[in-house]
Amino acid sequence: MVRYEYDKAGLSIQELKTESDYEFHFRVQDDNVLRRLKQLRSEVENNDDLTDVHFATQPGSVYLAAVRHDFRMEFVLLMFKYGIVDAVRRERNE
User: Fold this and answer.
1) pLDDT digits (tens, 9 = 90+) for 42-77
2) Which of 4, 7, 19, 71 could disulfide-pair with 52, CB 3.0 to 4.6 Å?
């Protein structure tokens, strides 16, 4: 399992696993984080090869990313690439 850490002062992330995908709910309170999230979204939406993520905007500065199960790790690394998360680490199963 891959875990990530982020600055909770300007952002909260709620991750839900559903039958078909992972849902990442981003509640953004910081303009810099919002800018980076929009950059990530733009990369995904403008890349025909990245069909594993779908974004939606909800009321109240909430952004939703639906990520296919087999693309979760790549999405977490994209969040790291854009500075949305500060650290990514692998946890070993016990």
Assistant:
1) 999 888 776 789 999 988 889 999 999 999 999 999
2) 71
